[in-house]
Amino acid sequence: IVVTGSDDHLWKMWALPDGNIIMTGEGHTDWLSGCCFHPSGTQVVTSSGDTTVQIWDFSKRGCILTLEGHARTVWDCSWHSCGNFVASASMDNTNKIWDVNSERCRYTMCGHKDSVNSIEFLPFSNTVLTSSADKILSLWDART
Protein backbone atom coordinates (compact mmCIF):
# COMPACT_ATOMS: atom_id res chain seq x y z
CA ILE A 1 0.00 0.00 0.00
CA VAL A 2 1.27 3.47 -0.93
CA VAL A 3 -0.30 6.79 0.14
CA THR A 4 0.31 9.85 -2.04
CA GLY A 5 -0.75 13.49 -1.74
CA SER A 6 -1.26 16.09 -4.43
CA ASP A 7 -1.65 19.82 -4.99
CA ASP A 8 -5.45 19.46 -5.24
CA HIS A 9 -5.61 18.53 -1.51
CA LEU A 10 -6.56 14.93 -2.25
CA TRP A 11 -4.67 11.89 -1.09
CA LYS A 12 -4.87 8.48 -2.66
CA MET A 13 -4.11 5.04 -1.33
CA TRP A 14 -2.76 2.63 -3.90
CA ALA A 15 -2.50 -1.17 -3.69
CA LEU A 16 0.75 -2.79 -4.78
CA PRO A 17 1.67 -4.44 -7.08
CA ASP A 18 -1.51 -3.97 -9.19
CA GLY A 19 -1.70 -0.17 -8.75
CA ASN A 20 -5.44 0.01 -8.06
CA ILE A 21 -6.71 2.95 -6.01
CA ILE A 22 -8.13 1.66 -2.71
CA MET A 23 -9.34 4.97 -1.25
CA THR A 24 -9.24 8.70 -1.98
CA GLY A 25 -9.49 11.29 0.79
CA GLU A 26 -10.67 14.85 0.42
CA GLY A 27 -10.94 17.19 3.36
CA HIS A 28 -7.78 19.22 3.90
CA THR A 29 -7.92 22.72 2.44
CA ASP A 30 -4.19 22.93 1.71
CA TRP A 31 -1.35 20.62 0.65
CA LEU A 32 -0.58 17.42 2.51
CA SER A 33 2.71 17.18 4.37
CA GLY A 34 2.64 13.83 6.17
CA CYS A 35 0.77 10.59 6.78
CA CYS A 36 1.07 7.58 9.05
CA PHE A 37 -0.84 4.30 9.35
CA HIS A 38 -2.61 3.41 12.61
CA PRO A 39 -0.91 0.41 14.27
CA SER A 40 -3.95 -1.77 13.44
CA GLY A 41 -3.88 -0.68 9.80
CA THR A 42 -7.54 0.46 9.89
CA GLN A 43 -6.91 4.21 9.85
CA VAL A 44 -4.44 6.77 8.60
CA VAL A 45 -3.55 10.18 10.05
CA THR A 46 -2.57 13.08 7.78
CA SER A 47 -1.00 16.50 8.38
CA SER A 48 -1.37 19.57 6.20
CA GLY A 49 -0.48 23.13 5.39
CA ASP A 50 -4.01 24.02 6.54
CA THR A 51 -2.78 23.70 10.19
CA THR A 52 -4.87 20.58 10.89
CA VAL A 53 -4.38 16.89 11.50
CA GLN A 54 -7.06 14.54 10.17
CA ILE A 55 -7.84 10.92 10.96
CA TRP A 56 -9.29 8.78 8.19
CA ASP A 57 -11.09 5.48 8.70
CA PHE A 58 -10.96 2.89 5.92
CA SER A 59 -14.24 1.16 6.82
CA LYS A 60 -16.09 4.50 6.87
CA ARG A 61 -14.18 5.61 3.77
CA GLY A 62 -13.66 9.15 5.06
CA CYS A 63 -12.39 11.58 7.65
CA ILE A 64 -13.67 10.81 11.14
CA LEU A 65 -11.81 13.49 13.12
CA THR A 66 -10.13 16.84 12.47
CA LEU A 67 -7.69 18.04 15.13
CA GLU A 68 -7.21 21.81 15.26
CA GLY A 69 -4.84 23.81 17.45
CA HIS A 70 -1.62 24.54 15.60
CA ALA A 71 -1.11 28.14 14.46
CA ARG A 72 0.86 27.26 11.30
CA THR A 73 1.55 24.39 8.90
CA VAL A 74 1.65 20.92 10.43
CA TRP A 75 4.67 19.18 8.89
CA ASP A 76 4.40 15.67 10.29
CA CYS A 77 2.26 13.28 12.31
CA SER A 78 2.73 9.92 14.02
CA TRP A 79 0.61 7.33 15.85
CA HIS A 80 1.54 5.99 19.28
CA SER A 81 1.86 2.19 19.18
CA CYS A 82 -1.28 1.82 21.37
CA GLY A 83 -3.31 3.64 18.72
CA ASN A 84 -4.94 6.12 21.13
CA PHE A 85 -2.59 9.07 20.63
CA VAL A 86 -1.29 11.08 17.69
CA ALA A 87 1.74 13.37 17.75
CA SER A 88 2.06 16.36 15.43
CA ALA A 89 4.97 18.66 14.51
CA SER A 90 4.39 22.21 13.31
CA MET A 91 5.96 25.27 11.78
CA ASP A 92 4.64 27.14 14.85
CA ASN A 93 7.69 25.71 16.76
CA THR A 94 5.55 23.30 18.80
CA ASN A 95 4.66 19.66 18.82
CA LYS A 96 1.41 18.34 20.24
CA ILE A 97 0.13 15.07 21.65
CA TRP A 98 -3.52 14.45 20.77
CA ASP A 99 -5.84 12.09 22.64
CA VAL A 100 -7.93 10.55 19.89
CA ASN A 101 -10.59 9.18 22.27
CA SER A 102 -11.32 12.56 23.89
CA GLU A 103 -10.64 14.39 20.59
CA ARG A 104 -8.45 17.02 22.26
CA CYS A 105 -4.87 18.12 22.62
CA ARG A 106 -3.39 16.49 25.71
CA TYR A 107 -0.02 18.31 25.67
CA THR A 108 1.68 21.12 23.75
CA MET A 109 5.45 20.87 23.91
CA CYS A 110 7.43 24.07 23.50
CA GLY A 111 11.19 24.41 23.40
CA HIS A 112 12.29 24.44 19.79
CA LYS A 113 13.27 27.86 18.46
CA ASP A 114 12.24 27.12 14.86
CA SER A 115 9.86 24.91 12.88
CA VAL A 116 9.43 21.34 14.19
CA ASN A 117 9.78 19.31 11.00
CA SER A 118 9.32 15.68 12.04
CA ILE A 119 8.00 13.69 14.97
CA GLU A 120 8.00 10.03 15.90
CA PHE A 121 7.02 7.95 18.92
CA LEU A 122 9.56 5.43 20.13
CA PRO A 123 7.66 2.11 19.74
CA PHE A 124 5.91 0.89 22.91
CA SER A 125 7.08 3.96 24.81
CA ASN A 126 5.97 7.43 25.86
CA THR A 127 9.11 8.95 24.36
CA VAL A 128 8.75 11.28 21.38
CA LEU A 129 11.60 12.30 19.07
CA THR A 130 11.43 15.61 17.19
CA SER A 131 13.71 17.27 14.68
CA SER A 132 13.67 21.00 14.07
CA ALA A 133 14.94 23.69 11.74
CA ASP A 134 16.83 24.97 14.81
CA LYS A 135 19.23 22.04 14.12
CA ILE A 136 18.24 20.21 17.30
CA LEU A 137 16.89 16.70 17.88
CA SER A 138 14.83 16.52 21.08
CA LEU A 139 13.51 13.63 23.15
CA TRP A 140 10.29 14.33 25.04
CA ASP A 141 8.34 12.39 27.66
CA ALA A 142 4.80 12.54 26.26
CA ARG A 143 3.31 12.17 29.76
CA THR A 144 4.82 15.35 31.23
From TrEMBL:
According to the UniProt record, one GO cellular component term is: axonemal central apparatus
What gene name is listed for this protein?
A: Spag16
Domain of life the protein comes from: Eukaryota
Q: Which GO terms describe its biological process?
A: axoneme assembly
UniProt-recorded name of the protein: SPG16 protein
Q: Which UniProt keywords apply?
A: Repeat, WD repeat
The WD repeats lie at 25-66, 67-108, 109-144
Keyword Repeat in the entry? The reply is yes
Q: What is the species listed in this Swiss-Prot or TrEMBL entry?
A: Pygoscelis papua (Gentoo penguin)
